[in-house]
Amino acid sequence: NPATQENLQKLRQRGVHIAGPALGHLASGQVGPGRLLEPAELIGHIRTILGRTGDLAGKTIVVTAGGTQEPIDPVRVVTNLSSGKMGYALAAAAVGRGGRVILISGPVTIPAPIGLSQYVSVSTAAEMRDAVMSRLGEVEVVIKAAAVADFRPQKAARGKIKKDTTSLSLALERTPDILAEIGAVKEDRILVGFAAETDNLLENARRKIKEKNLDLLVVNDVGRPDIGFHSDYNQVTFVYADGTSEETPRLLKTEIAGIILDRVASLISRRRGRP
Ligand code: PMT
């Protein structure tokens, strides 16, 4: 109705945040914009509004999430079990603290959080690398929760590979190490990596944090079925650049995301206080 549209316009001009309407089936039997938003979406809007005065207000933050898919042929890929839950929880929490959040995501089945500044959908490690590196100029914090494939088929077959042999060998090559590449041009950015380990967790983490020039490495034991890939829960160890470490209890990924951002916020304020 023109009167409703006019009133909405007036409210927008007065700075009121309008949430919705959602598209879908309406009580009138028609399909279109007119539905109340789902509760999760409403919470997303509320979180965005409340976040405006949060401790990450004005900070541009890149979060990567999900696994990458490296093509073998047009219908098959090399991938991993990442659901994107950890990275999406981080992106939503960062929005809720006022961050301008750019979420760069591999293929996942969960909805993107409300209030993102940008959502970039990628498939391969090479695409994720380009998406991250091309945005680095404007970014103050990078959090790399994505499970990037370490290896990809040397050459993707152009046609579907036939199953007329009893075995098949794939020659693999390394993908670009995005975290190491960012570490090499890091300057004043806060760089947070994840480490998905099954053995010698701390030993490997202390080596990685130095090699890749990170401020914080979040280590999770992906051999445990009750945390890590796909689970709603995680238990992590933070390893800092000076080699010290700190363990969290097993918590929801949404709670772990909040603790990670607490650490990021204190790294930012420590950096700001530096002569
Ligand atoms: O998505 P979920 O189901 O919620 O699961 C969450 C998770 C287990 C995927 C997440 O908590 C996690 O551990 N993410 C990192 C997984 C990983 O790739 O770990 P890694 O140890 O192989 O890599 C170390 C770091 O280097 C990561 O920050 C990764 O993003 C980065 N990397 C890896 C390879 C590569 N070619 N480029 C990279 O930048």
UniProtKB/TrEMBL annotation:
One GO BP annotation of this record: coenzyme A biosynthetic process
Species: Tectimicrobiota bacterium
The entry's keywords: Ligase, Lyase
Gene3D superfamilies tied to this protein: CoaB-like, Flavin prenyltransferase-like
Protein name: Bifunctional phosphopantothenoylcysteine decarboxylase/phosphopantothenate--cysteine ligase CoaBC
Gene Ontology MF: a single term: FMN binding
Pfam families xref list: DFP
SUPFAM superfamilies according to UniProt: CoaB-like (SSF102645), Homo-oligomeric flavin-containing Cys decarboxylases, HFCD (SSF52507)
Coiled coil: none
